[in-house]
Amino acid sequence: MNPDFDAIKKTTDIVAVIQRQGIELKKQGADYVGLCPFHDDHKPSLRVTPSKGLFHCMACGAAGNVIQFVAKKENLTVKEAALRLMGNMPGVQRGSDMEKPTPTTPASHPELLAAILDHYHQTLLGRNRRGLDYLKGRGLTDVAMLSHFKVGFVDGTLKSKLTPAQVKLAQDMGVFNDKRNERYFNRVVVPILDETGQPVGVSGRDITGQMQQKYLNLDGPQRGVWNSGSAAAYPDELIVTEGIFDGLALWQAGIKNSIAICGVEGWSALHTALIQKHSVRKIVLALDQDEAGDRGVKKVTSALTPLGVKVHRLHWPEGINDACHYFEYNRTLDFKGTPEGFAALVTSARRVGVTRVAGSEEKPPLTVVERTDEMVLVKNGTINYRVKGMSSQGALKIMLTAKKDDVYHVDHLDLYTNKARKMFSTAAAERLSVEPQKVEDDLLALLDLLEKLRAADDAAPTTSTLPTVTEAEREEALQLLRSPRLLDRIASDLEVVGYVGEARNKKLAYLIGTSRLLPKPLSGIFRAQSGCGKSFLMECVAELTPPDQVHYFSRLTPQALYYLEPDALTHKLLIVDERDGSEEAEYPIRTLQTRRVLKLAVPVKDPNSGKIKTVVLEIHGPIAYMESTTDQRINPENANRCFELYLDESKKQTEAIFAAQRRSRTLAGWQMERQKEKIVRTHHNAQRLLRPLKIIIPFVDLIEFPVSWLRGRRDNDRFLSLIEGIAFLHQHQRRISLDGNTEYIEASIEDYAMAYDLAHQVFAQASSDLPKPVADFLAQVEKIVPQKAREAKLAPDTFTFTRRDIREAVNLPDYMVKRYMRQIEELEYVSVQRAPQGGSFRYRMAEAVKQPRHLDGLMRPEALREKWNNWNKVEQR
């Protein structure tokens, strides 16, 4: 049945119909005016004359009656629009019976829309250069950026790539018009994706300058936000641009934390939901500085300020309109913006949407009453707020107590989360008998206050954080450095700090830590079973080292050291808790130990030119290095750069540890614990009193070091560095000499004697073909086997034994006995008789068993002293 068009036009209120379409109309004389929905309208161009039932847009020329308005707005035929209106007319039923057709949206056929957008992108990069030339004129030349956002160009060739059915679907989506011509012809197009990455919209920019609509979007409501992923990646600060091209200009400049609103009136519920979902804390509006921009700012602030989001407005330099304009070269102004300049504009952007009471700057609503490292106490009138647990960065997750008189409410919350603030405000208001809005306003003010406190803490200079040393403390530190038996005093202090026994290992570990200040520092690997105290010994040494000169890591990734500040490791002590945590970074650690500098060449994109260039990251040493491990087999490349220190696993050491654990529960132990803080402070001060002096070893040519093994080339150099380290630690007991302008001290024979005492056993163990625990195990086996042979009335060389015989005698777990037996078998200290399937292995001591050889040829201190005295006598003649 055909509709009665005249009756519909006469009986339908055109103003009501247009307002139901979501268009705000304001009365102006006998007519109504509003923003035209058929083009990107910034000033009210739509005029509606209810007396005639007509509408007309003075900008784009759209005009007609109420039926034509509905047909154009909802993409219907005139008949369909008339029937739609008839369904709303009183007393007329025939139109209401017509089912509303299901609209075809991009979400209905995402694969088709994606294929269309891919065709447009290939067209942009193809032979037709018109789209690229236009973008070049706008300063958008980064091909990687254009590919990332699938920017395209429409040249009218799409229809030939689609089937008739696909053309119909594309027409229903709004890609083709009623005549099945491409609606985006001669436009550069940018896809808009939803948060799952599916295309849901298209924004097209006219490149001819002759079309009525400069920008064209798909019909219907907004379905996505351009670059919405940046909200999740940059919740601390998000930039909102007026157009997508402005966002592309920012991205090209390396500024990726932006979204676009496609016109000053383009802020929608989708944008607000996106901000809420990712708890975005700050919005910077980079809109045009005109009347329309002002309206856009009001719309955004009215939507976000109630959610606790800080809204700031960026102000462009004189003569600049938007981000594209900012980063283009302007001949008139002789100006082209830079990323650094834009960052300064963002920093200086003023906050908007906040009503400030006169005098509020001088008297803030919240007053800080007290502040410690753990707590901030603020007050607003009769309510006190106590904040605990504020982290130094990231989310403001705190434990907050609101108290009024003797009534209080306490809870954990994230101040950045609107829902958490509302829940706390409601509960606290009920408990304290105040208005919820009062508490919520206080929380927003508290958020501001805590951010300022945290920013002030972050901005505080780190170079002046060294503790002040009093004259008395300096004198105590000098007394320590002048101690006659300084290394023994250090071992004793480490015992007070908590590490019992093992004087040699403690002295060596302390010297390794101190050697960080030398040109060639030392390194150490602490080896023992799990639970023997390897990590604790390193912790104790780190505790006696000034905190700013230690880096203690649980794990290092392969590239971690390359991205530190260039001098972050210079003359520092680097400690990795367990070797498993440093295996991935073995190479950079070895390089720092040997070459004392790291260099990494990486390709990066120049934010100004967009070209790839190579940047060299350079990290300077030298470093002192310590790590621990339970592994008995270490890469020789690592081992020959370090002192391998085996911890004492004997029963005697275990008994000493038990005694110390019991003593810590006594009055004497408590008194010793109270000495610890003073000892730590004295050692920190003493370490800072050590000056970078040159160390001369006058008798170095007289030192004899074994030449029978190749790794001695590194061990000899490490031994000389140990002598230098001992002399360096004793510098306040030595005469300082001058060579030109360089100060130096000389090492003494006593320094050599201490180095020999500390290192000769370490070198001996390193020169053995068995690790120390395995060598100790072999020594036990050599005692057990003759005893077992006598009990069996057999000769030791004919007696065979099992692992069980050994395990019961040495009191070690089976897995360790297996491991040790396998190692001494491989080196032929025992021979094995393989058992048939299901039987046990039997072992026999090999003939002419050799003990693990100790290092021969390292000159004893007495011999060196005699040679040195004789050499001096010859010199004096």
Would you mind describing this structure in some detail?
With 877 residues, the protein is α/β, with parallel strands linked by helices. It has 30 helices and 31 strands. The strands form eight sheets. Strands 1-2-3-4-5 form a five-stranded antiparallel β-sheet. Strands 11-10-12-13-14 form a five-stranded mixed β-sheet, with helices on both faces. A hairpin with a 4-residue loop joins strand 3 (46-49) and strand 4 (54-57). The termini are far apart.
Q: What portion of the residues fall into strands of 2 or more residues?
A: 15-25%
> What structural category characterises the helix and strand content?
alpha/beta
Radius of gyration: 40 Å
Count of distinct strands = 31
Largest sheet: 5 strands, antiparallel
Helices, by number, come to 30
Summarize model confidence as the mean pLDDT.
82
Tell me the span between the first and last alpha carbons: 135 Å
Query: What level of helicity do the residues show?
Result: 25-40%
Oligomeric state of the chains in view: single chain
Low-pLDDT parts are 89-102, 356-363, 851-855
For the biggest β-sheet, the strand order reads: 1-2-3-4-5
